[in-house]
Specification:
Elements lengths: L1 E8 L10 H12 L2 E6 L19 E9 L2 H6 L5 H4 L4 E6 L3
Antiparallel strand pairs: 1-3, 1-4, 2-3
Length: 97
């Protein structure tokens, strides 16, 4: 099993069902794949030398899951309120050292 982040973008085409988050997270927990998550607030980009890149304002939250591979991780998008509202979910594997 590998760890993946589901990064939610703030580009939904319909309103997100706030109540749907509870059902979605309960589904992930029941399957034993939920590893955490949170909304993402404002912040800042910093760099030791030179100008930093721009803050990624389109990211609004994340969910961390375990899955066999990228295709398996993608199967857990069903029911995600951002995905169901037409928004983008970016899936990233967390490499193991």
């Amino acid at each position: 099993m590998a760890d993946f982040l589901l990064l939610m973008h703030g580009d939904t085409t319909a309103p997100e069902g706030a109540a749907a988050w509870g059902a979605y997270l309960a589904k992930l927990r029941a399957a034993g794949v939920f590893e955490g998550g949170s909304a993402i607030g404002t912040g800042a980009c910093v760099r030791k030398l030179g100008a930093p890149g721009a803050l990624a304002t389109h990211l609004t939250g994340f969910v961390r899951i375990t899955a066999d591979d990228l295709a398996h991780a993608q199967q857990w998008l069903a029911g995600n309120p951002v995905f169901e509202a037409g928004g983008t979910i970016e899936i990233r594997e967390l490499p193991r050292e």
